[in-house]
Amino acid sequence: MNPAEYMLQFFKIEERDDGFDDGISTSFSRMHDAETCLDNLIKMNVRRLGTTKSVMPQIWQKLWESYTNSSGTGYWAGFSTSQQRDIPLDAAEAQALEIIADKSPSLPISIAEEERKTISEFLDEALKAVREDDSLPTSLRVYVLDLISEARRNLDEYAAGKEFDLKVSLQALFGVLYMAESQTGKPTVWENLKSKIAKPFISALLSEGARQLVASGASFLQLPG
User: Fold this and answer.
1) Each residue of 137-163: b (16+ CB within 10 Å) or e?
2) How far apart, in whole angstroms, are the C-alpha atoms of residue 169 and residue 148?
3) pLDDT of 103-131, one tens digit each?
4) Are 49 and 65 in contact (CB under 8 A)?
5) Which end of the chain is more exposed for a tag (fewer CB within 10 A), N or C?
């Protein structure tokens, strides 16, 4: 099963295979790879993919919301690393996944020392923000801390020469940062994070040709697509 086919099953556009894994780590990884495939097609000048690209942020948001419980007031009553509810895709979103369902390339990433330092600084600032924001649900704060630790470990292993998949852990981290900013009672904490380090962090990654890492980060930073 390729990544886009996985996402079609996740959102129950297609029937799920036996033993389907709907955990957040798997779903975020597959969604990232599906979007990477789309980006590859666009880079190869495949035409008429504008609408497909335009609905990716909505699919990401529905994916994140699948791991929350709705309070009925526009806020989340809880957060879990296992799927909590089914969020249906509209016709355009489902069609977007169908268009890329037969493609699933993976792009390598190379990070220079300066960019590695910038990522490390971003993780430090994200850690400060989540520690300072005691208005967030405990489960969400703990999960953000776990993702920061995972990304930090990946960076350390990269410096030691070990291959790793940083893009997946960063994609997941941006996803939960988006959740945190949306639900916080202390918005200035997240404004400070964005103004201090997040935009330079994005620029560093873009300079390495790794725009796919920040597809969900654009929502967090309110950057143009």
Assistant:
1) beebbebbeebbebbbebbeebeeeee
2) 8
3) 654 444 556 666 778 788 888 988 999 99
4) no
5) C
